[in-house]
Amino acid sequence: MKQLEKLSDRIINRVNINLRGFELDVTPFIKKTVPLTQLVKFYAFYGVTSHHPLHFNFTHSSLAGSYFLGKCKIDRSVLYKSDIRGDELKRKGDLCHSHDSAIPIDEDEVIRIKDSYLIKTLVHNYSHDPENPEEFLIRNTVSLPYANIHGAPMEGCFLGPFSTVDLTTLHGCIIGTFTYVQVGELFHHRIDPGRVWIRSDEFDFNYSFDQEVLDHYISFDADKVPRGVLMDFVEDRKIDFESVFDVVHLEPSISVPDSSALNRYSVVKGDTHIGENVLVAQRGYLENAWLGTGANVQESSYIINSRLEGNDITAHGGKIINARLGKKVFVGFNAFLQGKMDYPLVIGEESIIMPHTIIDLEESLEIPSGHMVWGCIRNREDLKKHSISLKELSQIEGQFTLGSMRFQGSGSNFVQAFQERIEHILEANGAYYDGEKHRGHAQEGQTISYNTIQPYLTGDLKGIYPCIDIKP
Amino acid sequence: MKQLEKLSDRIINRVNINLRGFELDVTPFIKKTVPLTQLVKFYAFYGVTSHHPLHFNFTHSSLAGSYFLGKCKIDRSVLYKSDIRGDELKRKGDLCHSHDSAIPIDEDEVIRIKDSYLIKTLVHNYSHDPENPEEFLIRNTVSLPYANIHGAPMEGCFLGPFSTVDLTTLHGCIIGTFTYVQVGELFHHRIDPGRVWIRSDEFDFNYSFDQEVLDHYISFDADKVPRGVLMDFVEDRKIDFESVFDVVHLEPSISVPDSSALNRYSVVKGDTHIGENVLVAQRGYLENAWLGTGANVQESSYIINSRLEGNDITAHGGKIINARLGKKVFVGFNAFLQGKMDYPLVIGEESIIMPHTIIDLEESLEIPSGHMVWGCIRNREDLKKHSISLKELSQIEGQFTLGSMRFQGSGSNFVQAFQERIEHILEANGAYYDGEKHRGHAQEGQTISYNTIQPYLTGDLKGIYPCIDIKP
């Protein structure tokens, strides 16, 4: 274990130096969340297909988790049950658009993780940093369970549990528990827990959860493990994944159309239906789930006793329990939507559930179609202060507040940006596949061949993985 | 599949050129034995420990099977369910003794397999070619099911099913079905099926099975798959291995002493007992097996309804059914020993069952202690013509025949060579471990960490494995 201890200390040291301005010591956060002995217990796996550029290079690291599809280089890092998914990386020959200029991509983009400690973290999409388009770099960074690093290169950062950094480049930042940021770029910022912040040249959306809500759903401090309803929810379902990871080959227990992909590292229970062009990513969880054509369920998403009519998006970490979603509903990262068996949550078509929204019903509730919702909603009264129709939002120009949400800028640009992104996600996931054209992840992710790698089990290197280089 | 077809054709072409003097075309042998579509179905696995030098390098190959412990380089080859076991390779700094000279080993020995097609073949031990002590090379070679390549570098060879090449360097040879050779070196020889041939500077042992025996137990020609009792025996038990290969981690179903290793890729059934210092290698098969202290069961060996008192050796491919073995009985490669439930085969202590011996009882039989047996024995009459006491054998000097066995040379050197080898095997396997000293495979093989690798599942590269390089 000596080398693993040294590796852990090395990463802590580097992150602490980067964050010295905040006087943050990440030691207790890491040591409390995952004891080093845990790192020896699991295997890593990486996927190979004939559709994606292949180059994996793992050196001097502890790797439990998945690395797949695309190019990925991990050096002197600890990845614990993390999903590093490189199926949207830029390819050699692509043109990348940013601020009216087109950047030619001369090499396949590579995810590079160096001197970092990512615990149950999702890394996906591609680097949205136009300055370094061919490298999606995560360096000197610590992230805690259920954090999402989405198209967000970063250096010297600390990400709290259930936080999401989306299409944003970070330098020396602290991102609080359950915070969502999509703000382009940040230098040496500390973002408090429970803030949802979206900012571009044209708009600024800002919301912060009440402390009472955070205390109940997800909270965390240095001397304790993350706790609250969200943590209990995922912990309670951990055991269902064990049998999935224990077998080498797993045939789906339900029928899956030829146009759809049900990842073999997902859980399927109860009476579940998979329609055409559906993508269920790894660590997706389906229990009595009805998924209509083009619906998708991304990593660490849970669909329980719910029906999704079609072209619905459940972003990474989204949880939908006892609900009925109309067509093309967008459920953002780490959203937690829970109806009751007696009165399921109903969401009308083309509504947008903002990332990190909590809906936890105390009474029956229907979200009308074409609405945007955010914050914490438990009843109809809450809904009034945490929703707006897309039509109304599109007409806003300048400042607008509703409850503790503050909006500034062009509402129509905000709505348009969201809708364009939703279309892009559906396209990328293959929701619009017609049997020939518009292939996406639902079609390309069907024949992933998985390889596994395990750490040394004894001696000085215990818990460290051998160095591996894998190419076509 | 295009690349896999090209690879197969390339290997066939190279082997045929090497064997052109014999006008042998290996095409039908390969194509009949394993259809190319089979090669896509299985995974390869390689083991990592902190005890063995690590460097695996696999390029442009199809690899189903196991590669483990030590350094191994596979290039443009097909390995189908083959066991490549490198835990006896020479290490940097070793001294290798040959013909009164000591050869210093300057680099860790590496197994290198190039342009070869090995089907259900075992490769083990180290290169006994003193001219190339740091490379155990298998090149331009085809081997068929249950062949053993044991310390035997070779180039341009064809090995029939259930054949064994032991401590012998081969150049452009054909080794017939169920043939055993341990003869130092051979150039452009064709050895007929069913010959057992051991030759050194000091002795020469020669035996050939009758055609009737071969037809019944194991025979093979180009337009058919291998057939006979031996083939049926292993085919009937194939299904038991499926569940073993299907799970990622497998805890032993019986208690295993701290000093013993039960490989996780072995089968354990019925009332089975594992004593101290026992080694059960991968693809070992135990059913109602009682293994006393220091017994070992090597790759593709089967122990069924049998008791081994201790320090017994079951060499690669040995099968022991309904038998009781006294202490330190040696059962050679691919031996097939079958008593009946009513009258188990009894073998007295320190007896030597020659490689490729068939004992298949029609009546009760006891092999006295301190005897050597060979050939095919079904009753007491057969035993007389196929056995000799070690004491008597030691006194032979010159020529000696018994039945169709011909011996020439020093009997005492022959017995001594066998006994020294038996001691060496017991030492290497850790049979003499005392809790501190004399560690061997039984102790070093307990904490192997296995990684898996799978082929491309679609496209031009279907069935080919990605190139992998793995180091400490």
Structural class of chain A: alpha/beta
User: Overall 3D geometry of chain A?
Assistant: globular
Count of helix runs of chain A: 9
Instruction: Give the termini separation of chain A.
Output: 33 Å
Can you give the helix content of chain A as a percent range?
A: 10-25%
As an assembly, this protein is homodimer
- CATH H-level superfamily of the largest domain in chain A: Hexapeptide repeat proteins
Describe the protein.
- Two copies of one chain form a homodimer.
- The first copy, chain A, has 472 residues and is an alpha/beta fold.
- Chain A has nine helices and 46 strands.
- A twelve-stranded mixed β-sheet of chain A has the order 43-44-24-23-20-17-14-11-6-3-1-45. In chain A, strands 26, 27, 29, 31, 33, 35, 36, 38, 39 and 41 form a ten-stranded parallel β-sheet that branches.
- In chain A, β23 and β24 (203-208) form a beta hairpin.
- The radius of gyration of chain A is 21 Å and the shape is globular.
- The two termini of chain A are 33 Å apart.
- β46 of chain A pairs antiparallel with β46 (467-471) of chain B, so a sheet runs across the interface.
Identify the notable features of this structure and list them briefly.
472 residues, homodimer, alpha/beta, 17% helix, 10-stranded parallel β-sheet, UDP N-Acetylglucosamine Acyltransferase, domain 1, 2 domains, 9 helices, 12-stranded mixed β-sheet, 46 strands
Explain briefly what this protein structure is.
By secondary structure, chain A is an alpha/beta fold.
